[in-house]
Amino acid sequence: MQKILYKPFNNLFYKSYLPTIVHSAMVVGVFDRLKKNTLKVNELAKVMNLHFGLLNTLIKVLKHAQFIEETKEGIYKLTEDSLIYFTDEYAKNQISGLQKFVAKDSPFSNLTSLLKSGPPAYMPNRWSTKKGMFAIEQDAKAGSIEAVQNFIISHAEFKTVTNICDYGGNSGYYTRDLIQTNPNVNIDVYDRPEVCEIAQDLNNVSSIYKGKINHIAYDITTVKKITKNYDLFFCSHILYHYMGLNGVEDSLESIIKKIYDTLNPGGLFISNHCGEKLSEEDALTNQIMELNVKMSGFPTHIISERSLISILEKNGFKILKMIPAAEGVHYGTMLLSAIKL
Ligand SMILES: C[S@@+](CC[C@H](N)C(=O)[O-])C[C@H]1O[C@@H](n2cnc3c(N)ncnc32)[C@H](O)[C@@H]1O
Fold it and tell me: How far, in Å, CA of 13 to CA of 10, rounded?
């Protein structure tokens, strides 16, 4: 795989959120509690009256940032350094020094209150404006689009693909350039109605895409049956909507079954998603992202490699290729392909 240069910047920028996160943990009393802790995180959440999902991810952030350590399975306590520098037990503590790094206007500014009240309901339309769509596409340009396209093209089966589904594909930036490699392909991009409307304008810019990209207004939360058949079904950062999100009818397994039914025999399923097995540095970034995603009302944005593979194999797919999250692009994404048997 080519070297993706944005990853170190991305990791560095995510780490800049740490002072705000650590400060919140102190304010709600996590550091005091973890001085001599013997409780598991679910018990801690109960006695501290904090939201379990958020506390659980906050604890993982603190662990990967080496402020705390796991003493027994599921039980964490402060490291020696944290005890000295971040509790008022020691005269040389740096609690006030930390304040100057705490950002007033950051995605984590309301972490303290959300830890107490729980996250709000998620907003499905955050990627539905021209500005939001531009931002998410621009983000994918930091290496993800190239990685995804190279991965798709690396399959011999791609040469005979004609119908592609880009499910939850926004304006279609991940798949649209595949037309240049294989002019026979037609792409259906499924997304919310307002996204499809804006996307029509964006894709009309280039004549090469004319008549080749179809935007299908769709609601992924209430999937009945996908009526068309495809040779390639592509999912990028969309399967996590099926991991217990309020209001979504399908589970990860039931949506995979629907994808199987919609694929032609020998059809390819390809997923680009945040994985679990990461380098230590990416694990920190991914847990900070996970905390942010949970604060916006999602149960998770990470899909475990093991569970996705086992669901696919159980439902008639054979795994073809994988690029593990540890080698993925700046989000710690995993690329996986499977073929319908
Ligand atoms: C995290 S973005 C992923 C976009 C793109 N696949 C990518 O990887 O960059 C989630 C996408 O799901 C779409 N979406 C959210 N809720 C939806 C719904 N109920 N029905 C259809 N699409 C939805 C959003 O508009 C957005 O394009």
Answer: 5
7-117 belongs to which CATH class?
Answer: mainly alpha
If you measure from the C-alpha of residue 124 to the centroid of ligand 1, how many angstroms do you get, rounded to a whole number? 8
The string of pLDDT tens digits covering residues 180-232 is 999 999 999 999 999 999 998 776 666 778 889 999 999 999 988 899 999 99
Which residue's CA is the closest to the ligand 1 atom numbered 22? 191
Place of tokens 């959120």: 17
Whether the pLDDT of residue 2 is over 60: the answer is no
Domain definitions of the chain by residue range: 7-117, 130-340
Q: How many CA atoms lie within 13 A of 139 on its CB side?
A: 12
Tokens of 33: 């509690």
Contacts of 102 (CB under 8 A, 6+ apart): 19, 20, 23
Phi-psi region of 172 (alpha: psi -120 to 50; beta: other; left: phi over 0): left
**What is the number of the ligand 1 atom nearest to the C-alpha of 235?**
6
Distance CA 247, CA 324 (A): 30
pTM of the model: 0.94
Best residue among 237, 250, 273, 298 to mutate for probing ligand 1's pocket (most ligand atoms within 8 Å of CB) is 237
pLDDT at 151: 96
CATH class of 130-340: alpha beta
**For residue 270, pLDDT beyond 90:** yes
Mutation probe of ligand 1 site: the residue of 187, 196, 220 with most atoms within 8 A of C-beta: 220
Ligand 1 atom with the shortest distance to the CA of 220: 20
Q: Supply the residue whose CA is at minimum distance from atom 12 of ligand 1.
A: 168
Give the angle 263-336-278 at the CA atoms, nearest 5°: 155
